Amino acid sequence: MSNTLTTQNESRPDGGHYSVLVVGGGQAGLSISYFLQQANIDHLVFEKHTVTHTWRSQRWDAFCLVTPNWQCALPGHPYSGSDPHGFMKKDEIVAYLDGFIAKVDAPVLEHTAVQRVKRAADGRYSVSTSQGEFTADHVVVASGGYHTPIVPRMAERLPAHIVQLQSSEYRNPQALPDGAVLVVGSGQSGAQIAEDLHLAGKKVYLAVGEAPRCARFYRGRDVVDWLADMRYYEMPVEQHPLREGVRDNTNHYVTGRDGGRDIDLRRFAAEGMELYGRLDDLQAGALQFAPNLQVNLDDADDTYNRINLSIDRFIEKSGIDAPPGAPYEPVWRPDGERTALDLAASGIASIVWCIGFTPDFNWLDVPVFSGRGYPAHTRGVTPLSGLYFVGLPWLHTWGSGRFSGVARDAQFIVDAIRAACAQPVASVETMAA
């Protein structure tokens, strides 16, 4: 099989052979296209919906970035607005992405689902899609790691009159029926959606999970600015204390809303939000919760203070003149653990499930996955020649799944593709031998 790369502008029929096929038209897939075009490598991007679909259809109305705008650094398209230390709202994020889409002008087949990817005996990849069959020398999986919403089976036993939404379906408080709302999960989405409902005057019950939290501002600056100076965002996964285990961590909850602030669940509780521990079951008309609210709140605060302490040490070591700081002290503590809540008496009319997503790579018929369903790779390069991943959380650094780090990852992958194209392609039989 030839490894000669044809030019980007050469006309190619649908269903033909490409040097590279990219699965996913979000920021990761478009970043790959950006660098492939710079390298004059022919390719095609498949997108199941429309490019950057998730940002447009799976975010609530009040959604905004939780990292400052200056961290938006897609390839060739850095943030150029007037508020680098602000936090873009949903419509501003979409406008930023629209500018990137226009700049990249990627060759994309939208509304095209990839159904199966296999590696043939000659080393090529066969890619079956809803628009036909394709082949490629290289396949880049850029579909992210958040595919299937997690909703527990106990949801099936809830009364039919209770409206149930997954976090990707939530839009605003006005779209929910009158009555109280149960938010399940306190990661970034859960904490921010609970706040959105609380600010709208809704009665909110929140099942608090094990998500950590961090300060928005500390000692005169955004915590993200401090961590950037401390080079935390440059740390590769293999140097992180948790190593690959960090990929399983829940994101810290904080918000960029109204210019940015902490999210303090204890303060919400003091203002009338009702906090419980982890939701476990439904029995005899009562929701059952684990008795772990106090430990979950304490652990989140410990993380908050630990991050701030690391900033204190950096300031001292660097001799920086900064305003004084102090540890967070709880503004509210639960008066014991409540492990049951009568569903009817609570007035709960809707539930928003905010307990995350699971990856779904069942369409990838390739031997690169661990027993936990995660692909084996080093900076996105898998052990299987010609197969790559990009856009996964902590693929290489903290920013790998974000606007801040995907450009570096995409450049690395395209460099690997260029290097591979200079070598003979190994057939499956050769690899087995």
UniProtKB/TrEMBL annotation:
The keyword Lyase belongs to this UniProt entry's keyword annotation: no
Classification via Gene3D superfamilies: FAD/NAD(P)-binding domain
Sorted UniProt keywords: Oxidoreductase
Full protein name: MSMEG_0569 family flavin-dependent oxidoreductase
GO MF annotation, one: monooxygenase activity
Protein origin, superkingdom: Bacteria
NCBIfam families per UniProt: MSMEG_0569_nitr
